[in-house]
Every structure is written in structure tokens, then in C-alpha cells.
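Tutorial, part two.
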Amino acid sequence: MVANTQSWWQEKLHKLSLHSRVTLLAAVAVGLAVAFVSVAAYLTVRQQMYQNLDDSLTDRASQVAKRRVLTQQVALEGIPPEALGLSDTLLGVYTADGQRIGSTKSPLPPMEEPELEVAQSQNQITQRTVGDAATGQHYRVVAVPAQFCPQETIRDECEPDGPGVWEPAALVVAQSLKPIDHTLHNMGIVLWAVGLLGVIGAAIAGNAIAVSGLRPLARLSGAAEHVARTAELRPIPVDGSDEISRLAVSFNSMLAALARSQDRQRRLIGDAGHELRTPLTSIRTNLDLLAQADKRGGLRPEDRQQLLDDVRAQMDELTNLIGDLTELARDTPQIRNAELIELSNVVEDALIKVRRRAPNLEWDVSIEPFPVWGDERLLGRAVTNLLDNAAKYSVPEDAPTDGRIVGLVTVRLQDGVLTVTDSGPGIADADLPHVFERFYRSSEARSRPGSGLGLAIVKHAAEQHGGMIYARNAPGAGAQFTLWLPHAATQTR
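Running the prediction step on this input gives:
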């Protein structure tokens, strides 16, 4: 039952707006605080008033019992409490043998078992509250030990200091609690009124705070809705340094990152469309030529084979281009499923592949073990691209195809630094800042196969693994590319 009630309340609260919840929270918090303070004040005042009344009644009753004037039956029955100025007080004596004696002109105070024990023991004082069902009032009753002189005793023997016969009894004084109840009732009304005003004031203040404090959040929400509706990634103005302002700053950072991502996507799509158009056009042209030739009787076998080889080459180029585009389209800020990799093994595997495709090159290789955390597939593709690039430019365009050695590629892996140096013509100074850009190809490279994405993938892999890549022209050689990756011991998984 309790769980169902809590679920119901949680469901209702979740349906409220944040503005309503802040207002409700302020009202409830102040209401609880006022309630606790009011209850504490009420109980404290009530306890103090009862304590003061008890002290007063006990002191007066003790004084009366000590003087032994009102504990004489003649005096007690003949003098009503009103004559002594005690209009709201009842006075009586409860003897040890159970007799209740008081004024004949006023009712007796409540005298029961606790007061009888005082009369019989003569060594205790009782204080209690008793309700009167007949009058609807209740009294604070105090009983103190006393000595009682019966009416039949000779008057001289009932003198306070005389040697008369005094019987053990209890002097009982009952004070009406009506004045205290009236005071506490008025106090309760005042506390309720103050509490209600406090809750109303807290609700008003909470509403004002919610309106003021949530204004930046409303502006942020409006900006998010505007972005969702119009796809305009304009940042919102930020004022202050509170939590909502920091949220707005984070939102602006997210918008900026989204804008950069959209810009990269647009450029990638635009460049991809341009680059894909070239091999597709060439393939279509060759297929059209083949179809037209078949209508005229067909081509010579060698011409037909050359045309088909050209189509296959264009298909291979298109396949590689799509693979490169797929890799770059991931555009993730860092690798997610990193594993411990031996970089030297990655380089050796890449060398085996590239050597098979470039048999007329000499390879000068020196590799040292170096562990890294990363994606083995992505690192393998990056290293293969570096080696393919070096192999491509180390072979002259007019090189013989009889298997003779025509170039040299130097590969070094030391302390996490992979250096690949080719024997080609090098890179022009104007092209050096752009070699890692997507689809960038220098004028010398346009005559060679490639999509212009290989080195962009190398840079992408280096950045994802917390490393870096840079290019320069090596003295006495061709282009030199240096890839640096951090040691596995310095990386976090």
C-alpha cells in the first residue's frame, strides 16, 4: 500500500513542470519548517505554563499546610475558596482513612487514589490533570502532605502550635486550566495563521525564484526547440556563471561541435561526390565503348582485354575509395574498444602486404617492439597506407616492369616512432601543409592512381590513438613521414 502511494505521488510530481515543482518545493519546505517551529513553540510554552502553575500551586499548598489553618475542619468547611480570592480554585483535605472534607459552599477538588497515597505516606507530592465530566472543565490537581484537625476536637487543641490530635492527611488544591487553555488556544490560532501566511509567502517567493532562476533554462529550451525546428545552429547568449549558465555554455559547445560535424559531412559528401564521379564516368565510358563495339562486330581480343582491364582498375579504385570514405565517415573522437597491441607486429603485417604489391623495391627495415593501446584494424590500415604511399612514389612512372630494383623504402620503428622514407621526388613546399587533407592531391600526384584519402586516414588514426603524424623532405632522399604513438603504459583504457 505504501509503495503504491509513493508511486502515485512520484507519478504526479513527474507530471508537474519544473516551475511548479520549484514552487511546490519552496511551499512544502517552508510549511514543514513553520510546522516544526510552531509545534516546538506550542509544546515549550505549554510545558512552561504547566510548570509555572505546578510550582505556584505546590508552593501555596505547602504554605497553607504548614500554617495548619485551613486544615482544621471548622475553618475548612466554613470558609469557601472564593473568600480567599481563589475563585477558580478548589480546596479540600483527604484524610488517611479516606474521608473527603471541604467547604460546604463549593465543590470538592478531585480526590482519588494518588491523593490518598500522599495522605498515607506523608512523604510525596503529586501533580496531575483531571477532567470534570459534569462541568466540561479540567483541573490541575496538586496534593501535599498535611495534618488535619477534626471538627470534634476542642478548639484549643486545634491551635497550629498546640498539642492537639492531628491526623495525617493530604491538602488537595485544584486549579482550573481554563485560562491556560484559552491562552494556548489563542496561541495555536496565531501559529496557524503565521504558518499559513508563511506557506503562502513561500509559494509566492518560490514562484518568483522559479521565474527568475528558470528564465535561462526557458531560453535554453527555446533555443533547443528552435534548432530542432529550423536546424540553425546559432549559439545562445550566456549571462552569469551559475549551473544553468554552465549548461548553456555546454549547449553552445555542443552546437559548435554539431556545426563542425555538419560542415565536415558536407565537405565529405561534396568531395566524395566529385571523386566518385571520375571512376564512375570512366567505367560508364568504357562500357559504352564495349557495347558500341559489340554492335559493330566487336573489338580485337587484345583491345577488348585492355578495355576490361581498365574497367577492373577503375572498379578497384572505386572500391578503395568507398572503403576510405567509410573509414573517414566514422568521425569518432577516439577509439572505444581499445586493446593491447604490439606495434611491431602491425608494421610487419603491413610490410608483407605492400612488398607483395611492390616487388621491384628494396626495403630497409629496422623494427623494435613497442606496445600500444588501440584498434589493430585502424592502425594496420594507417601503416599500410604509409607504406603504399612510399612504395608508389619510390617507383618512377617510366620504371621497367621486368622485376629489377628501381627504388628504396626505409622503415624504422623505435620508441613508438615509425619513420617511413621513400626514394621519390619528395613533396613540394607548397604541398607540405596540405598532404593530410582529404582528397588533396598535388599536381605531381594526379597522374598516379589514388583517391587522396590515404594520408587523411593516417592522420585520423594517429589522432584517435593520441599520437601525431607529420611529413617532411629527408636530406638526400624523398619524402619522409613520421608517425608517433604513446606507449601503452602512459595510456588509459
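The mean pLDDT is 78. In part three we will examine how such features are distributed along the chain.
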